[in-house]
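[scheduler] slot 2 assigned
[scheduler] job type: sequence-to-structure, two independent chains
[scheduler] chain ordering preserved from manifest
[runner] begin chain α
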Amino acid sequence: MRSVLDECELLLLAVDPLWRGRGVGEALLRDSLIRARRRGITSMNLEVRSSNNAIKLYEKSGFEYVHRRPGYYRGNDGQLHDALSFRIDMRI
């Protein structure tokens, strides 16, 4: 997590493929949000490839879609993939 003033950006949240679908990602994200709130953070941003299955987790956790960056990521196959930005307002 990288923060500036009362905003932060979640840079990486990764779960081993063998552990996906078991609530590990949800627990890691919840812990990140709790830690950010304790530091006085009022909003968190993240960016993810448009094909990433974690989008469901982010939306379920309260993140809202902000915008799309067309062709931002280049895959191993050389194809371009869009990046999606999400944000959550953590003010109580």
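[runner] end chain α
[runner] begin chain β
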Amino acid sequence: PCFAMPAVAMREPRALEAPVRMSGEVVKGFGRGSKVLGIPTANLPHDALKQLPRSFETGIYFGWATVDGVGPYKMVTSVGWNPQFANTSMTVEPHLLHSFPDDFYGSSIKIVIVGHLRAEAKFESLESLIDEIHLDISSAGELLDCEPYSFLRFDEFLFSLSSSSASAS
């Protein structure tokens, strides 16, 4: 039934063989998420990339997040080079499906990536990119209400006091 939902039906989501766990301090990115796209992100620091498995493919993923131990919140994240903006370094840019009253730079964020939505892509226009991101957000929201993804909101990593990554396990 989950894969028949409108947003999900336009995707070919796939579960990861094992969840990927990452953590770090929320850092300022390029300022494009909120200002250019209207979709704020809680960027992980560059050194958080070491927490990814070696074979991890770039793309758009979904999962769960906590901020300073509060949550879990549904999230969709870009892991990669952001071809639309020709980044010269890889980034991890989670967007949490929650409305926060203020920025939370410097807060501790933990994410558990549970599934893949699509590959990275360069779009014809910013409007096309924004439309695609909104579809990513809708798809992630729908998928995370379903098994096997919804149960992973209880992943102990999200609530552990340790900030060390468990990565894929």
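[runner] end chain β
[qc] chain β: The mean pLDDT is 85.
[scheduler] slot 2 released
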